[in-house]
Amino acid sequence: MKDKYDGPILEIDNLSISFFTRLREIPAVMDFSVKVMPGEAVGLVGESGCGKSTVALGVMQDLGVNGRIVGGTIRFKGRDLSEMSADELRRVRGSEIAMIYQEPMASLNPAMRVGKQLMEVPKIHRGVSDKEAYARALQVVTDVKLPDPERILQAYPHQLSGGQQQRIVIAMALMAEPSLLILDEPTTALDVTVEAAVVDLVKELGQKYGTSMLFISHNLGLVLETCDRICVMYSGEAVERGSIADVFDEMQHPYTQALFRSIPLPGADKAARPLRAIPGNFPLPHERPPGCNFGPRCDYFVEGLCDEREIPMFDVKGSDRHTTRCLRFEEIDWHAPLSGVEARDKTEPGKVILRMEELKKYYEVAANALFGRSGETRVVKANETLSFEARESETLAIVGESGCGKSTFAKVLMGLETATEGKIILDNREIQDTSIEDRGAKTVSEIQMVFQNPFDTLNPSMTVGAQIMRALEIFGIGDTVAERRERMLSLLDLVKLPREFADRMPRQLSGGQKQRVGIARAFAGDARIVVADEPVSALDVSVQAAVTDLLMEIQREHKTTLLFISHDLSIVRYLSDRVMVMYLGHVVELGTTEQVFAPPYHPYTEALLSAVPIADTRVAKEHIVLEGDVPSAMNPPPGCPFQTRCRWKSKVPGNLCETEVPPMRQMQDGHQVKCHLSEEEFRGMTPVIRIAAE
Amino acid sequence: MGLFILRRVGIMLLTAVCLTFIVFFLTNLYPNLEKLSKSQGNFRMSDAEVETWLGNRGYTQPLLVKYGQWLGVMPGYVIEGSDGELRGRCFETGLPPEEAPTFCGVLQGNWGFSTVFQEPAGRIIGEALALTGKLMFWVMLLMVPTALLIGVLAGMREGSATDRSLSTVAIVTTATPEYVSGVILIAVFASSAVGLKWFKGTATQAMENATFENFFLPVLTIALYGMGYIARMTRASMAEVMTAQYIRTARLKGVSFPNIVVKHALRNALIAPFTVIMLQFPWLLNGVVIVETLFNYKGFGWTLVQAAGNNDIDLLLGVSVVSVFVVLVTQLISDIGYVYLNPRISVS
Amino acid sequence: MDPLSWAEIITRVLTQFLPVWVSIAIVFAVSITWKRKLGLYGKMFDSPIGMIGFALVLFWVFTGIFGAMDLIVTHDSLGQSAFMKNEVPGTPLRGGDESAYPYYLLGGDNLGRDVFSRMVDGAWVVVQIAPLATLFAFMVGITLGLPAGYFGGRLDTVLSFLANLILAFPVILLFYLLVTPEIVETGIPSYMATVLFVFPIVFLAVLLNSRYHTRPKLRTPLLVLVLGLTGWLYLSLISQAGTGVEVLPQALDLFDVPGGILVVFVAVVFVNSPTVFRIVRGLAMDIKTRDYVAAAQTRGEGRWYIMLWEILPNARGPLIVDFCLRIGYTTILLGTLGFFGLGLPPESPDWGTTINDGRRLLQIYLHPALVPAVALLSLVLGLNLLADGLREESLRD
Q1: Is C346 on the interface with B (CB under 8 A)?
Q2: Which CATH number do you get for residue A471?
Q3: Does position B268 have pLDDT exceeding 50, yes or no?
Q4: Do C173 and B323 touch (CB under 8 A)?
Q5: B contacts of C186 (beta carbons < 8 Å)
Q6: Which residue of chain A is at minimal alpha-carbon distance from C39?
Q7: Least buried of A351, A406, A620, C229, by fewest C-beta within 10 Å?
Q8: Which member of C298, C300, C314 has the closest CB to residue A461?
Q9: Neighboring chain B residues of C362 at a CB cutoff of 8 Å
Q10: Taking Cα atoms as reference points, which of A535, A528, A689 lies closest to residue A598?
């Protein structure tokens, strides 16, 4: 049985981990220390490649063949983990320390029933009988709030939805009531509303079982909501450590400060208070600068001081275990107003360019994907009666979770698919039935797209320059190769990439640089309408701001209409003029950014707003947790698409929500909401996000 | 599930019809028929005589008609020849022509008559199949477990010394076709020149009485080639599974290494090789042909060579039909088995 | 003269291969010096397995080439000597003239031919046919596999059905049906050659047109040139007096391929293409979901451009690996054909035929069958190791 232990659960001291390749040693974590007390939740924050996951694997002593701990100690309840034998280690793993990963689907064995995977844990660690193990599994599955636990235990992982799978992974981690739970980006693969519910569950269960947590995330907002303390990492080192309040409000490291300035918090505005991107790039592990790793990107860098020697952690006086890895933290005026970022003129939307009228897109799919082809088919209503218009220089955000039909909409607009019904009008021309082959080069070049995944957006076997020149060629721009090359170079200038990049292969570029090339390619033919499909969601926080900024700047100069598809409401609030919220193929709300972000809300918008984590301690949110998952578009519920998860459903008389699709209701000033709720109910709604007065 | 199997069987039958038709077409090309008539009749026949000879025996009918008759969906020909003799496809010696059935094709169980062995083709094929069945049984028994074992052992710790040495063995065996390994094995273990003489260099005696001494070399020869291939597939699949995240989950949940391999990795790792084993059949059939020729074992492969080499049309057709069916049936089994092994594919 | 001892035999054989050693050394020295600039080929020199495989392959390639240039062979591989029947390795030559090489280094076969020279000439047969046949099989497989994978639907169903049809045929049966003198007489292999060899031309034409259709000034002369040249080669290849296909006047016919070789070539291409088709189809289905393909679609690229310039280059890794493996497989197939005495003339020095000749007396005389068997084994092993090395290196980074 668990022994009582009241010292620190986990104590990492000056830990250094390196990976060894054929060519060199690559230090992944250097001089890293952190302490987790009983019942405490510590957040580990940093951008990709900063070594936060390596720390987690180091704690689990699972670094693979190439990784090795080259210095420091990891103590778990006072015992050094690296001195344990394989057998002792095995007894600790799963029973005292458990881990939850990013991809729930990948972390469950696809060929084993869920129940068996859960029951394995107590059977290994406590040697209990099948029956006892089953009882325990049933209890834990009930604890993680999964409906119909008995059926779930009999299921294979692929039969569950993403959210359910992650709950199973959590259940598995809790089977043996561990003292320490390590969560490595546990919600990144999930939809926002599902993420909110899972985070809620983790918090609740952590308290119930008294588990300490090490929460690894790139999302500051999420850490704010879940953790007591935070440790910020940069390029293999911890740069700042302290309680949530200290680090969020009284930060003592330039990187932390720069990070907060580059994320869109409430109050940021693309014209009046633009974001400030961190200049430069994340250093590669074998190209770290001497002295302070953040030095080359830091505003407060002093030559001869910061690059002289390795910098230790300093204690910040008068605070609870608040430390920073900055030599100048006492000299810097942390409250000085942000300089170097000018407010810009707000652009006014021009004439209407694009109009959608009652656009519908249905697919016929075989009912059984694998063995189908013959047999019955099913109609998937990917887009239901979409109507809106977009103006010159306007940013229209399209918000929704997976399966809401935003990608289908983009395909129809681009001409990769033709519409089932309705009209798409571009400058008085109807193009809904013209597929891309039949559109002229001009029309094609006018509507272009920026893709989500930077690692997938460029052809890996063609140089950057060749890809842009190919686009120019297809759009019929320039008569000679030399002319096109000149134009290509000026496009590289436009997206602020050095001209040398023209001859590089995509794999030599970082994610943000690739995304810039993608933008350059989209603007090759002076696009008037650009569909940006989550262009920054796969990028690191500090790069996101720079790429967003670039898009905004090009838009201002070219008067482009930007259709910005995103699930991230923070960024949507920051850059869009109007917002369209979609759910299961329906537009549920449409209005200006102010209208959508303020009551009255559509119930779905309300939940979405509540679900998005905001990295600001001043923000108080109303707590709304949606039950269940987004229904499959193959099998949508009858009536209102949102009725299965709506918390307002009881306020509508009769079973209207379940039988009838609500009409699009005109609120004031063009604000539209698709809901059955009465006027009074709408008027009674309160804001979800409130900012406390400073 | 039923519908799925039905569809597969349908496709399989269609494939079989297409394939047999191709074989029928190729074996019934005029030069082949000419050779047949000369070898059966008289080597000094003139072109006109060949023509009548063939005409009298129904060979000059349109191809589709001949195919239909052979298959047994069209009535067999009855031709009064230019020499006055009445011949019919379905006539049997010793029975009056009136009692002959109308249809007599493969579907009725009539496989034709072998001109080389002077026996009904059906019987020859049956006997040959039994002999080859015996060979294949031992081949499978030796090949599949060994290959899987090698593959799993090599793949469970990628890059280790065990992995490197086992992989090398597997690569060498896949680089050795049966006619090479057979020659080397005979040279080393059966020749008087080396002098080990542990095994017999022919398997003729094994047809009646198979012993370790006279049967091991042919079995090993066929098994070796396929073994390397399956082992490499298993290794690749196993190595991939061992890096999967759910294996890490299992490890970090405290499952011991042997249990990880047996309980978590094995089933997932065997899905891919299972299909491969089944799809090995067309190639195993090749091995059978080579080995039976090399070791003089008069099974199915040997019969194929005799039939093809001597222009024995009916026998060759029969052999083709059987081998095509063997291949198609194993493909069907592989498809169905894949669905059962892999829970991610649901058949509703 | 005394027979040679084993040490002497080995020394003499190694000396005989001198030009091969020099060439291999040069290739390796040059490649290793510039390996960082040579892409995947250069990276292969980081893998010991890949290097061993490459060395083996180079050995046989150079042996074949120099053998055909009469550099390595010691005797005429078809010349028989009544005194040398079944003589063991290292036997001095009796009854030959003064200028001839004084020994049969690896002995004589049952007709008294020099086993060493036959092995060297056998390499030339493989080096001539295997890579080219594999290349043709790839052209066919790619030209059909890309659209099948990219478009899917009915086209895919039909093409996949045809591919499976060929795959369901046991290879030897197919060979026995295709590669017999009677079938050759009907001209069917020539017709098949006519069809199969069109694919490379179609492939090239579509490849260039899809890339350069936006620049007609470059495209038109380029296409005329390439099509003219390949077309002429094609017509020369297929047209042959005496078969069903005689399209080109004799004067313009550049070369004639011996009937036996052509049939073997066609059969091997025919057997290999469905597998290539399946691989390419699978790769195309995977790669077509990538964003860069969507990007090409949204800028209005033609379908063939997407298939040949966006999908194909990114499938090259697995295809190169398979290409190496497939040359090995083709070598095995050629051996099989020789082993059953199909297609190639009976006195041909190719390894399959030689093994078949030698196996009859295998219980007593090992060397006539063992030498070509080991030769074939080492070449295929080399190709497999090379493929393995390439696969490993292409997966890295």
Answers
A1: no
A2: 3.40.50.300
A3: yes
A4: yes
A5: 29-31
A6: A461
A7: A351
A8: C314
A9: 183, 186-187, 191, 201
A10: A689
Pairing of strands A212-217, A97-100: unpaired
End residue of a domain, out of A201, A227, A253: A227
How far apart are the CA of B327 and the nearest CA of chain C, in angstroms?
Answer: 6
C-contacting residues in B 224-253 (Cβ below 8 Å):
none
Lowest mean pLDDT among A161-175, A282-296, A558-572, C378-392: A282-296
Question: For A62-73, what is each residue's pLDDT tens digit?
Answer: 887 788 888 888
Place of tokens 């420091």: A72
Residue A312 included in any domain: no
Which of A210, A227, A244 is the endpoint of a domain?
A227
DSSP output for A169-180: HHHHHHTT--SE
What mean pLDDT is reported for chain C?
Answer: 87
List residues of chain C with CB under 8 Å from any CB of chain A. Answer: 46, 214-215, 290-292, 294-301, 309-310, 313-314, 316
Q: Which of C171, C336, C366 sits opposite B187 (nearest CB)?
A: C366
Q: Please report, for residues A354, B116, B319, C177, the alpha-carbon distance to residue B312 in angstroms, rounded to integers and kept in the order given.
A: 74, 6, 11, 12
Domain extents for chain B? 2-108, 121-341
The mean per-residue pLDDT over the stretch A460-473 comes to 90
> How open is the CA angle A470-A475-A476, to the nearest 5 degrees?
95
Optimal mutation site among A60, A63, A107, A121, interface B, most CBs of chain B within 10 A = A107
C-contacting residues in A 292-351 (Cβ below 8 Å)? none
Token digits for A89?
A: 């280690």
Say yes or no for a CB contact (<8 Å) between C340 and B305.
yes
CA–CA gap between residue A324 and residue A255 (Å, rounded):
10
Q: How many domains does chain A have?
A: 3
Place of tokens 């294996």: B247
Give the gap in angstroms from C-alpha B13 to the nearest C-alpha of chain A.
Answer: 18
Q: Residue A156's domain spans which residues?
A: 10-227
- Angstrom CA distances, A276 to A258, A263, A335, B140, stand at 8, 8, 16, 68
Q: At the top level of CATH, which class does the domain B121-341 belong to?
A: mainly alpha
Inspect the interface and report whether the beta carbons of C170 and B29 lie closer than 8 Å: no
| Cβ contact B342–A111 (<8 Å) | yes
Look at residue A1 in the predicted model and tell me its pLDDT: 40
Nearest residue, CB atoms, A90 vs list B256, B342, B344: B256
- Min Cα distance A505 → chain C (Å) is 12
Taking the Cβ of residue C380 and every Cβ of chain B, the question of whether any pair is shorter than 8 Å is answered with yes
Task: Please give the full DSSP string across A332-383, using - where no structure is assigned.
Answer: S-TTSPP-S----PPPPP-SEEEEEEEEEEEEEEESSTTT-SSS-EEEEEEE
On the question of pLDDT at A195 being above 60, the answer is yes
Nearest-CA distance from C34 to chain A in Å? 18
Q: What ipTM was predicted for this assembly?
A: 0.86
So what's the pLDDT on residue A377? 67
Smallest Cβ–Cβ distance between A451 and the set C294, C300, C313 belongs to C294
Does the pLDDT of residue A544 top 50, yes or no? yes
Residue A384: closest CA among A565, A585, A579: A585
pTM of the model: 0.87
Residue B285 distance to chain C (closest CA, Å): 7
Note whether A575 and A602 are same-domain residues: no
